[in-house]
Amino acid sequence: MSEMAGMGYMSDRKLPQYDLDASFYDQVRAAKPRYELVDRFELPPLSGRGFKVKKGQTFRFVTVGGPQIGDVALWNAHDTREYFVATRTWVLEGFVIKVGTRLWSEVPWMRPMATCIEDTVTPEPPDSVYHHSDSRTHCTSELWEMRSGVAGLDSCHLNFLQAIEPFGLSEADIHGNFMVHQKTYVEPEKGRARVARGDSKPGDYISFYAETDLLVALSTCPMGDGIRDVATGEGEAYPIGVEVHETGIQPREFPKWTDWRPGWTGKWAPPQA
Ligand SMILES: [Zn+2]
């Protein structure tokens, strides 16, 4: 039995310098009356749009009209080789996104790209096993064809293409993403996610604080309120409101990783300079 066995969740084991600095985000939330609005738009149903967010700004996904699933992907605005990675985020934070969850990139950066700072959505009933935001991946036209037999249906994959092509990115740049306003329950035995109609009411929102300059892509998923039939188009879909605010508070620098390569004696050898 390994030393790690019996130690509980591996994701809880971190040196203190890698823990969430809760007091910093209290300060960010306390500054809310002084935030300045820098961008605001509504993305129609079944669409995609990209937008830039500077570090120290917040970005918010607001329910407009009714519950609508949003798929969201992140890239470093200056180096798109760094992007949000759902699986790395699961290991460090768990599957669910809630206030205090950080959204991580992968090595060699492996750092928080954004941190969830507010979420007004309350799942029903109050003791619900459901939640509304998590890290996973998006729907594709191929997925819908697999389920319905109908080819060429709208999907978040196509919406992401619509979002990122104006920024010079292509299909190869699309990786995992996270979901907002999608009412989900994960069955403990199978680990399968069940989706229900969302409980987000007009004006509800989830907000993130940008830890670095970001390109953000948003898709208004064809699953709409969570139970819309993508193949027939029956059901409800709504826009999602986006707001970007300047907080005036710069993010704290995440600790740099040790460069272990010069002294490495294992089998793999670093490239010679
Ligand atoms: Zn989708």
What topology emerges from the helices and strands here?
Layout: H1 22-30, E1 36-43, E2 48-53, E3 57-63, E4 70-76, E5 79-83, H2 86-93, E6 102-104, E7 112-119, E8 134-136, H3 141-148, H4 156-164, E9 177-180, E10 183-186, E11 193-196, E12 205-210, E13 214-220, E14 240-246
Antiparallel strand pairs: 1-14, 2-13, 3-12, 3-14, 4-5, 4-9, 4-13, 6-7, 7-12, 8-9, 10-11
Bound molecules: zinc ion.
Describe the overall structure.
The chain has one domain (13-248). It contains four helices and 14 strands. The protein has helices at 22-30, 86-93, 141-148, 156-164; strands at residues 36-43, 48-53, 57-63, 70-76, 79-83, 102-104, 112-119, 134-136, 177-180, 183-186, 193-196, 205-210, 214-220, 240-246. The longest helix is centred in the first third of the chain and has 9 residues, at 22-30. It is globular and about 60 Å long. Zinc ion is lined by residues 71, 138-139, 155-156, 221-223. Zinc ion (ZN) binds next to loops.
Could you name the key traits of this structure?
six-stranded antiparallel beta sheet; globular; binds zinc ion; 12% helix; disordered N terminus; 29% strand; 273 residues; 4 helices; alpha+beta
Structural class: alpha+beta
Order of helices and strands: HEEEEEHEEEHHEEEEEE
How many β strands by DSSP? 14
Report how far the terminal alpha carbons are from each other. Answer: 41 Å
Q: Helicity, in percent?
A: 10-25%
| Percentage of residues in DSSP E strands | 25-35%
Number of H/I helices: 4
Which regions have little confidence, pLDDT < 50, spanning 5+ residues? Answer: 1-5
* Ligand identities: zinc ion
- Report the major sheet: 6 strands, antiparallel
Strands across the major sheet, in which order? Answer: 1-14-3-12-7-6
The shape is: globular
- Write down the domain tally: 1
Estimate the mean pLDDT confidence: 93
